[in-house]
Amino acid sequence: MRRLILVLCAAISILAVSCGKDKDINPGTGGGGTKPPVDPPATSTDYLALAKETRNFSNNNLLTSSFSYRANTTTHANNCYEWYNVSQIYADAALITAGDASAAAYMNRTFQFMEGFWDKSDARGGYFASVNLNGTGAAGDKFVDDNGLTGMVYLEAYEVTGGADKAAYLAKARACADWLINSGLWDNTYGGGFWWNTSKPDKPTQSNGVAMQLFAKLYTLTGETIYRDWAVKVNDWLRANMFDSASGLYIWKIDGGGAGTKHYEKFTYDNAIMLEADILFGEALKDPSYLAKAQAIGNAMNAVLWNAQYKGYIFNTDPTQTRVNPAWCGWGTQGMIRLYEQDKNEKWLTYARNNIDALNKANRNADTKAYYYFAGFAGNDRSPEIEGVDQAWMQRIQAMMSKYDNK
């Protein structure tokens, strides 16, 4: 989930993207919001209409004839990134759930396109991070977070489709989990944990968090104990090594190369991932204490990662990082909706709703309906890039929120 240079076997360098933080972002420590919102937005918003507008922009500007999606509309219009494409599948699954059946055809065709990312030269498989727009040329590193998230995306697509497509989504989600188990990217360095990718630069919370989600949900669906055992293993490592009890939140990462340096910065989407991981883990093991843990993360997010002035989630706890990103900050809305689905406490919906509205003010181009990669909360300092993944995540959380428009 972040940018890096991949040197291909033909010695050609291309820019690829994983679902980690951008390498140009250098987070510091401290900072964050402390005061939660008191009231919902003054005016009601038609979130389903917003989701459809976002989808229309992606259709008209990012979608290709191969049913892949361009990375962005500017510098990487000829690149196609794995987690960008599956995020669009995730967005379409949410739109289907919200009642727009027309998204199913796009979702299923992009799922077919994803086969071009799969490593067919290795019996273990796994998704590469990048291909050409027509699905050729897959190469470079494979990422734990990309493959873990992809498995979760497919399990949601599995829930909203039927027939042969349904079986195919479940089979590929299992293949993603099986690649994680057999990839060799879990080892005893730092007492366990998955490396971020096959280059093994560091062990981040988010990579392990999405893996934990996938293992827990697959155990719930299949009853196969290997998935339960891996969910337990990942959870134990995360709680022992990445949970900061002082803040109630998870830290960013442990550096690679044997240095073992912990980075205590807190990111919104890392903790939204862990919140959802705890919910899924508790459901899988039938342990209600994990809902309480998820609620505690939610409360900590809303104490530390919330901007009280603009009523939206910050990118991270560096007080100098005043810009927000639709995908990474938008993930906080998904986390809050997941909590509401569990306990029906409407305070979570207030945070979820306000966060979308804050991103609409900060990042949305009112004319084109597109979202800028980064912007200040006031809509200042907008970066020129229109990234596909940001459109996908805004479509997704808008569609999810539409279910609760009248709450």
Automatic annotation (TrEMBL):
InterPro entries according to UniProt: 6-hairpin_glycosidase_sf, Glyco_hydro_76, MUG_Protein
Q: Which GO terms describe its biological process?
A: carbohydrate metabolic process
Which named protein is this? Beta-galactosidase
Which UniProt keywords are present, listed alphabetically? Answer: Signal
Q: Which PANTHER family match?
A: (PUTATIVE SECRETED PROTEIN)-RELATED, MEIOTICALLY UP-REGULATED GENE 191 PROTEIN
User: What residue stretch is flagged as signal peptide?
Assistant: 1-18
This protein's record includes keyword rRNA-binding? no
Gene3D superfamilies in alphabetical order: 1.50.10.20
PROSITE patterns, alphabetized: PROKAR_LIPOPROTEIN (PS51257)
Q: Highest taxon of the source?
A: Bacteria
Q: Which Pfam families is this protein grouped with?
A: Glyco_hydro_76 (PF03663)
